[in-house]
């Protein structure tokens, strides 16, 4: 995510949710285990305990859990592992795998079958239509078969899938005999969102795989890939290694997830950021700025006039989103586990000044 | 291309333009050289002469010419050779590489950047906008860079690019520093089309690579890949070999192209098929059937009511195209170098009966 | 295969077994079907009949048979289809996939696990040891798992596997849970060899896949890939298409194999070439030249002094093999279905002159 | 690396050099920057300063430095970036890329051209011979061209290349027009070794790319990939992203390397481990155990009788290496930046008891 370009001193860091290290509790845990000898490649007691805690939190006692470094890596390795060579992955045309992974899915040999739509979410209907179009095409053997559905919770634009929507997607996947994968890069902000009705156990029940994001949710790095049903991807460790994605010191990621899951911290940590984002969204609306997406989690996407953008940028690092046809600029502000309420207060004050025209 | 489903005896073969072997002159040439010893892998005198004839016909004395077996293979190998690993190929969303190659481009590791539009052609404006969007995006280093433009002449739907349109595409490619590649699977039907103003020399002048289609234009198999400027793709023979696309007996394809190019046969052979297609198109219109694409080359794409389709299928093999939302079926009829005027007469008679309601 | 460098007029063509087109019976068949309309992509009656004939010849009534264009292509597509992503293919270090396919297997993402040895054959013991080494290595999850055994019959150097040897390989494959694949690029010369005890039915019984070579055995091009057990590689047609290996006019290859198999021609056609090679080998021995491999099929590999090579090359096109440490050159002479006995007579005469020192 | 199997309580951790977190100074640095906002993807001031320090240490003011997560990832991405598609990488058959990366290089589409030899090092002569064999082979266009030399300093078995040896390799690479890449996973143990005469500036002068290992040399994770000459691999960040190897919080790795390089810590940190390994090696020799490799850096590879192994394993975690034909087991002990002298003392005492028979 590129940041907007103002250069004021000590600008408020709202350009993304990966601008700071780890939650203090997480970093403390790393210090505790730092000089403790642990076997490599995730075969250690911390990773094992983290796996057990995630299984428990997800109500999936047989789930297989692996720790990878980052989201694009997790997406590429898991999607490739879940697809047959003749299949592609269905995703929203705004999805991370469609736009912002530099072709990582294609580099694994698979097409991203991009579906458009009014917002950043895939509907069961659209997926079903795409599957049916393939099935009914007499040339389907010359076409990429839809083999997996990719969604992220929340979406690239911060929206939530409801439980009913995910269940509908699962029903389509079952009917068509394909898989469902949920990218949880920002899952903590979904789990803690006021309107959310999708829990970890729902993801375990409804998906073939999902990942619990760490990098954007309180760890230095690391994503916990969960296959709810054992045996889904045999030799997964070798697949991970073969893609250069196996961490030698897997215990360091394991220990961080251990800290996040041992008392439900992960499920709670997004709440403050979501609340801050709600205040930010309200401030923009009160300042007369148009929200381009309904704010549901930790992201606020707003359209600003040129002078509003300049005034904002003087004080705040925001994420560039796109140039709009009417001359306005779409900007994303992301709160995170690391945003303080003081920072949010200042941001809200800055936003209020944008209205004064 | 799947065929529609009637099973009448001796149905007329208009489902595709690759249902028969080779032009008699081409097959005779094969017989002549059949027991003549020739070195393998295209290092023979027939291939060499065919290359010289193609260079001459294209006014490109330094062009490098390679013979591959088929169109998907040629597209995959050439596009991969022309792209850097961080780049993707821009194509119409109806393009052969986008839809009907089972993900062959993605299997080489590259994204097909699909652009939609009103018809099957890419406009210079749309390509320029896609390139500009990438260049201006602050996250472009996380995105697939447009690196090559793919068009086919004629398009998947039988339309022609005008010289002005190709020149405009080239101008955009030059301005953006990217390449232009033309898929000529059905090039003979374009070259001989009444309204065509794009010759082989234009393709040589305007593209980084193009291929002269043989499989659909009179040979048993084979496509002549032309790089107008030498050195465009070093070690191309090894790239071809590495993708399993190097023919041991390259001389057999070379000899066929020798026969096609030694007296301008290639440039003439599409004329009869184009004329037949024009008659077919007119007959459909006179029968009150809607042409879904303007007929310009050897393909006619028409919408038929269910009963019309049944009556047509009883006598004619046609290519299934798609189910339309209004209940009609889109069907493609393709004439070819091998369609006789008698076959076309019967087809026109059959079409006339569709109107009788 | 590069040819040696003499330039005499009308040199005898013994550099390789793919220097001429097709057996007259095969070419006649092509002419017969040339203007007959046939559906594309192998869904035609000739391909279907050829499949039935091959199934019958191999005693494998349920076998799935596909026609591909060439050997490297067949090897790459089949090996990739039979391997899991975490597996590699075990081959002799002299094997075609190891040396002469420009990295086609690696281009599909798989390691060729090369085993050395005294000759060009893989032994059951060597394969077993490689599998055991992987199984017993505590780091095996970080290593490429042997997943398939590749052999060619005859080998790259013209040697034959005995039935007992193939059965031993199969037993090891069964014990280790991996597959066996036989490259039959020159299978006709094996089937007709005097000492051969491996028939098509043995290949069908003992392998997971094999191919019946056409390009080097009497067809213009084409290899018949056989999966003896149905369902071995689901969606194989799409895998073939995705790799650019699906022939639009598959009926042309089907018709050629139909001609080869309808009266057992394939099983007989190698006999003359094998007998010629035996005469050539004897002539070399009588001239005091060292055979580097025992002659068993249609290839003779011989070490020549510099002056012998020059004299041979003045009259004969031979295949370069390698420079030997002692200054001699290893040369391959290949007879083929197209070599006449008159050509062989002249070759033998030329060889006799090499002794005169 | 699998560990040997004893289960004694509190066994000494000598199985590998990646069993503990980070040097205290490095972890402190992470704590200092933890809540400081930093832009993502390596575009931060800590990464920038670490790059400047590495450039200075390597005497390569224009070098491009990128931070990746781990060694297999760095090898795969860099080797792919340095090779053309028709090329392979030459490596010792014991090299990490040859054996222990689960086929990661092949997964990128490239062959590892493995050269054997008496020890784990590549000689200039062997590389030159391999290049010459390719160049002189008349079939070279059908073969994988050697395009890059891969060595690691120290080697997989802990040996050092001398400056003269690296210069000879460079001379061969220059003569053949190919690249040289040095894997420095354990570079700190080479730099600090008593007999070493290869400094960072030598690597910058002699290679096309090398990486400075962090994971095994004092950081939590991370390797610094150095291209001494700018422009060697254009769009490298996108190549890294495309392979899922771009760290969102690159600043965390940057800060660790900043700590390692700001006062020469990296160049010093291996010395204690090397000295401990020397004591361990001496103890084995005094106990009558055969060292299978000369000890030069932080690894000791020793052959043990079954009972010796059992006694060792009761107290010490060692790395399994291989089963020897004579019944002994080859075992690796690795000291590291984290091994205390007290641990080494106990290890030496344990080793002494192995002699008592």
From TrEMBL, chains A, B, C, D:
Organism domain of life: Bacteria
GO molecular function, one term: transaminase activity
Name of the featured protein: Aminotransferase class I/II-fold pyridoxal phosphate-dependent enzyme
Entry cofactors: pyridoxal 5'-phosphate
Family note: Belongs to the threonine aldolase family.
InterPro entries the UniProt entry points to: ArAA_b-elim_lyase/Thr_aldolase (IPR001597), PyrdxlP-dep_Trfase (IPR015424), PyrdxlP-dep_Trfase_major (IPR015421), PyrdxlP-dep_Trfase_small (IPR015422)
UniProt cross-references to SUPFAM superfamilies, sorted A to Z: PLP-dependent transferases
Sequence ranges assigned to domain Aromatic amino acid beta-eliminating lyase/threonine aldolase in this UniProt record: 16-305
PANTHER family: L-THREONINE ALDOLASE-RELATED, LOW SPECIFICITY L-THREONINE ALDOLASE
UniProt keyword Transferase present: yes
Keywords assigned: Aminotransferase, Pyridoxal phosphate, Transferase
UniProt key word Transferase: yes
